[in-house]
Amino acid sequence: MKDYNLPFALSVLDLVPVKKPGAYGEAIEESAQLAEHAERLGYLRYWLAEHHNFEGIASSATSLLIGHIASRTSQIRVGSGGVMLPNHSSLIIAEQFGTLDALYPGRIDLGVGRAPGTDGLTAQALGRNASTINELFPRQILELQRYFSRENSSSSVRAIPGEGANVPIYILGSSTDSAYLAAELGLPYAFAGHFAPEMMERAFTIYHERFSASAVLEKPYTIACLNGIGAATKEEAEFLATTLYQTFLGLIRNARGLNPPPVENMDALWNPSEKAHLLNQLRYSFIGGPRELQEQMASFYRTFRPSEIMFTSSIHDQAARRDSYRILMEVASTLEL
């Protein structure tokens, strides 16, 4: 493992992108290789995000993938970014992550969110009840904490494995709602700035101002999830970023497809309105060569002061994706803040 001197922790968020029809095994293998690479570079954690009914994303069975990635690595923390908790029984998640902790002690994280991670019709197929989500989500977090506690051993319902497991819980958000909850419960808070930048500053402010220390966390801990695309030059990075742009353009048009290769000219694909909307939605994206990345990273950190930055790199080519994470790590190690 390389020893970079970092001013803040760096981590990875992976959606397990699928490039060809049905090539799920290939996508998972590339993610496992990327996790091994991230571990060698010194990234703190490697999280996988639960999504459903996306042809280009193979991370639906999140707990299974976490186990696979953990088996291919030895030190990096592996977890969910996140498990969409209202899609599941709290007991099932406690058992799954308790099992993961038994297999890979001290390396498993449980990031939880309340969004469906999919479209409305698929959310119904998952058994979600939209009218009870806001009430259910906080209750499920408390249930998880109870199932993981040793004190639950006298309960009629126990998580086995899970009871006494060392699985830290992180609350994920893309609006201000979960900031209040994370602050109230004294849990670490991760914000999805890679697709929902509008409320990130307000959410972090709420979390810091209202934070109450807990048995698991004495002071606020924030993770900013951002898009990161690094390359040797600005021009190459901007070319690679067209994969990210095409993916989000598909979401705007309700046309979820495979992870697309980069293109030379995005103006041939989007109209001015779509371009403006998309670039605003992706405004917290670090794209460029080392010089541009250094400026972007330093400016962002001075504004938000996150405890940790988690990068997701939507890059089609596996070698370029690996190289992007190397460049991002090297740039972060040179920052003087």
Automatic annotation (TrEMBL):
GO CC list: cytosol
TM annotation in the entry: none
Entry coiled-coil feature ranges: none
The Luciferase-like domain, residue ranges: 22-301
CDD domains: Flavin_utilizing_monoxygenases (cd00347)
Superkingdom, taxonomy of origin: Bacteria
Any GO MF annotation of the entry: oxidoreductase activity, acting on paired donors, with incorporation or reduction of molecular oxygen
InterPro entries noted in UniProt: Bact_Lucif_Oxidored (IPR050766), CmoO-like (IPR019949), Luciferase-like_dom (IPR011251), Luciferase-like_sf (IPR036661)
Family designation: To bacterial alkanal monooxygenase alpha and beta chains.
NCBIfam families: oxido_grp_1 (TIGR03558)
PANTHER family: LUCIFERASE-LIKE MONOOXYGENASE
Protein name: Luciferase-like monooxygenase
Origin species: Planobacterium oryzisoli
